[in-house]
Automatic annotation (TrEMBL):
Major place of residence: membrane
Chain intervals with Acidic residues compositional bias: 238-249
A GO term, aspect molecular function: phosphatidylinositol binding
UniProt entry tagged with the keyword Metal-binding: yes
Gene Ontology CC annotation, any one: endoplasmic reticulum
Compositional bias of kind Polar residues: 221-232
Upper lineage: Eukaryota, Metazoa, Chordata, Craniata, Vertebrata
Residue ranges annotated for the FYVE-type domain, each copy included: 152-212
Protein name: Pleckstrin homology domain-containing family F member 2
SMART domains the record matches: FYVE, PH
Gene3D superfamilies (UniProt xref): Pleckstrin-homology domain (PH domain)/Phosphotyrosine-binding domain (PTB) (2.30.29.30), Zinc/RING finger domain, C3HC4 (zinc finger) (3.30.40.10)
Localisation: Early endosome membrane; Endoplasmic reticulum
Gene designation per UniProt: Plekhf2
Organism: Alaudala cheleensis (Asian short-toed lark)
């Protein structure tokens, strides 16, 4: 069905509408063979609080952005190649229900659908697109992914030293390797994580010691899935998490 839609006028028109909704600031989305599979609003767990984001699933990429005017205008376009994506279901907890993790080497985060049916449809379609892409390319699924950040609200004290309390002066930071919320003194070091940034990024002392000695696996296993200890998150590859959330999402 995807192959049949690839060069159809209806598909071309739908993709063009998406492009226009992002305006001049968005990247062109129309390329030969690309098909728009579906779209919808999902709640993305950002650093400070959950936020509604518009998502578009294509047969080769996942696109999302901030909602300015529903169905008419979006900004801050993000494009994620699907062949690098793995997804994992999240157990329901409190008001956060029908969620799953979207994990890639550069960025990982949680999203939530309005209903269990919608969640199932999204996950099934994403998995099918990823499977088809890998089958065609002969590549293997990605086994590396960026840490899912623990939200600010989940940590009142540093998750490493367990002593420093966060205040307007003593600000929260995130380790780019494990995703923990840490204080400044526990995250003064930088380390090059090529999949996330071309420049050294902030990491906690614990991860720095492991990475410096080559114990990368041990560092990863301290929190291979941030939801094993704290069920929420967000983030990207900016070099400093002091940046305004809306600009770094």
């Amino acid at each position: 069905m995807v192959d049949r839609l690839a060069n159809s006028e209806a598909n071309t028109r739908r993709i063009s509408i998406v492009e226009n909704c992002f305006g001049a600031a968005g990247q062109p989305l129309t390329i030969p063979g690309r098909v728009l599979i579906g779209e919808g609003v999902l709640t993305k767990l950002c650093r400070k609080k959950p936020k509604a984001r518009q998502f578009f699933l294509f047969n080769d990429i996942l696109v999302y952005g901030n909602i300015v005017i529903q169905k008419k205008k979006y900004n801050k376009q993000h494009i994620i190649p699907l062949e690098n994506v793995t997804i994992d279901s999240i157990q329901d907890e409190g008001d956060l229900r029908n969620g799953w993790l979207i994990k890639t080497p550069t960025k990982s985060f949680a999203v939530y659908a309005a209903t269990a049916t919608e969640k199932s449809e999204w996950m099934n379609h994403i998995n099918k697109c990823v499977s088809d892409l890998l089958s065609k390319s002969g590549k293997t699924p990605s086994n590396e992914h960026a840490a899912v950040w623990v939200p600010d609200s989940e940590a009142s004290v540093c998750m490493r030293c367990q002593k420093a309390k966060f205040t307007p002066v003593n600000r929260r930071h995130h380790c780019r390797k494990c995703g923990f919320v840490v204080c400044g003194p526990c995250s003064e070091k930088r380390f090059l994580l090529p999949s996330q940034s071309s420049k050294p990024v902030r990491i906690c002392d614990f991860c720095y010691d492991l990475l410096s000695t080559g114990e990368v696996t041990a560092c990863q296993s301290t929190r291979s899935d941030s939801y094993s200890q704290s069920p929420k998150s967000s983030l990207n590859d900016v070099s400093d998490d002091d940046e305004d959330e809306d600009s770094s999402d």
